[in-house]
What we know:
By secondary structure, the chain is an alpha/beta fold. Among the domains are: 8-136 and 209-260, Rossmann fold, CATH 3.40.50; 356-459, Four Helix Bundle (Hemerythrin (Met), subunit A), CATH 1.20.120; 474-529, no CATH class. Helices cover 45% and strands 14% of the residues. It has 17 helices and 15 strands. It has helices at 47-61, 77-86, 90-107, 123-135, 208-220, 234-249, 286-290, 303-310, 312-320, 332-356, 366-370, 375-380, 388-404, 409-429, 440-459, 475-497, 501-513, and strands at residues 8-11, 16-19, 27-32, 65-70, 139-142, 145-148, 184-189, 204-206, 224-230, 254-260, 263-265, 277-278, 327-330, 516-521, 524-529. It has a 4-stranded parallel β-sheet, sandwiched between helices. It has a 4-stranded antiparallel β-sheet with strand order 5-6-7-8. Strands 11-13-12 form a 3-stranded mixed β-sheet. It is found in: Cytoplasm. Zn(2+) binds at residues 33, 212, 237, 241. Its EC number is 6.1.1.16. Monomer.
Amino acid sequence: MAPSSKIRVYNTLTRQKEDFQTVEPGKVGMYLCGPTVYAEAHIGHMVGPVIFDTIKRYLVYSGYQVLWVVNITDVDDKLIASANKRGVPMSQVATEMTMDYMANLQALGVNQIDSMPRATDNMDEIIHFIEELIENGFAYENAGDVFFDVTRDPEYGQLSNRTLEGQLGEGGGAAAKKRSAGDFALWKSAKKGEPSWASPWGEGRPGWHIECSAMSRKILGKTFDIHGGGLDLVFPHHENELAQSRCCHGQPMARYWMHNGLMRSGAAGKVGGKSDRQSTAPPADVEAETAGKISRSKGAGGLAKLIEEQTGDRIRFFLLRSQYRSTIVFGPEGLEEAGQSLGAFYRLIARFERLSGESFYLRGDQELEYAKTRVAGDANLANAQAGLLTELAKLRASFLEKMDDDFNTGAAVSDLFETSRTINRYVDAENLEDSTQRTAERMQTFRSGMSVLRELGAILGLFHKEPKNAASDEGADGQVVDGLMKVLIDLRAQARAKKDFATSDTIRDGLAGVGITLQDLKEGTTWEKA
């Protein structure tokens, strides 16, 4: 299968959408800046991984071979401070927090990462990279510290739209060693009691920016296709990465710089309706856009508890329901609405399993394989001439067009909702709840329709396993509600059997007034939150 030629990507470097053309035809190298593992992850750390996991899924689905790298920064001032505070080695803190990060990724269905290099495992590559910059005249050493000379790069500042005069330099003792305030550290001389590595400039450790340049080059090459990260990384991290890699190699570091919007706390909008994200800020206004971002310093945290309360699927869906470059407004209302919206899909899936006697969920590697090609989806609808499959073919085409347009999951989700509604309408119109109406032809059409839902859901990393109820939906309160609903449904059934339709309608209408709907099926009555 030849890769799709329709994909367009917004490039932060050029500030416009561009046709997606890879360095090597049919292959994609993609790098996402990962966490500094000094404390437990918070919800903001999951935005980029979920988005780029979905991007990889769609690229693979569209025919590309994708190598996706997410780095781990396991040496840093914050890590050292955390280790000292706890009285344990820095490596112990890094290992514990990396395990926490990876457990959260797994819970949110982020399973497409191919490589997760650690800075401490790549010291030789980092040191060699710095040596090349010094040899080429772009870096200098002073008393054990090595700095990148920003004045030697005439293009410095193009990613963040800054001038050299607008740079802010590091303070402290390092400032006196610099030739200009905007120069940044490539290697830091060791301080007493801190972890360090031997180098041509003495014992020390690398600066933050050089780590990513060295690790990405080692795995993806001097120029790769996509470099991703949060909007807060445009400056200084990505600007400095870009400069040191371009100067070292004489060629671009990445073809496309992609930045996801950040997360802010606040009231959320309605899922499936108005967007709960603010409009995308231009790269030149990074400070304004990042001023209110969620971070550990602002009290964010407890991701494991949040996942337990809300489920990973619900959080993933919440993060994907708008265009990735926009700012996410985070709040409990939005998560709850995301859960209710997912519930509509899962009710359709349960309906399919009940009527067909078959499992909707694929097992083992089937789910990943299903999302890796458009061929199965094309074949599924190849003979559609009228009715349900014709409608679904149009919705599928619309979904894919929106994903081709800078991976617009938010817009694509609207087609996913309509796919579900269209299938439900078909089941109702053909009266498939009545077993006598379930002809082989109708059920095969139903199966084909559900295959479309499975295909599009797999692109987003959804509907690949049976849903787990959120903790907020379980426990003693949930059991009480279930018990009360059984009593009310039984009372209504008794009233209907006596032809007391006034009482039956009163129960139904009263429940509807508090957001609960009843569905009368041949097999019995079911209930759900509206």
